[in-house]
Amino acid sequence: MGLRFPASYDEIAGIFLSSDFVNCVMTEKYKIVVEAKPHYIAAQSAPQEHRYVFAYTITITNQGTAPAKLLSRHWLITDSNGKVQEVRGDGVIGEQPYLKPGEMFQYTSGAMLDTPVGTMQGEYTMSSDEGEHFNALIPKFTLSIPRTLH
């Protein structure tokens, strides 16, 4: 699996990105690292009906020096036809995790596409103990059925 460095993120933050690892660096104080591991759910998919179901496990780690609370999420889910689904909501899976420095939070969720390949990207809105808000960007990662991409 090769590395991809999208110009938009590479130029802005020097972010390391592969198909199953997403890293978002803020500042030393607010340094949130996001790891995404997607996989295809064949048992819930129906390719003949253009329904492809994917699960993704997200690990959010606070590598900064200050605590942070995840307030909300914003996802852009795009299939290979260019159809975009926008998802916004409070927290993740009904929770708003509070992460002290060094702590992590992990959850699994899902997405459904009309095509066998797509992408996800987005951001988490975070808050410090002082009420300062900042965004933890989630660079684009790929959703793909096995053996579709090389």
TrEMBL record:
It holds the Pfam family DUF525. InterPro entries: ApaG_domain, ApaG_sf, Uncharacterised_ApaG. It comes from Methylovulum psychrotolerans. The lineage of its organism: Bacteria, Pseudomonadati, Pseudomonadota, Gammaproteobacteria, Methylococcales. Residues 26-150 form the ApaG domain. PROSITE patterns: APAG. Gene3D superfamilies: ApaG domain (2.60.40.1470). GO terms for biological process: error-free translesion synthesis. This is Protein ApaG.
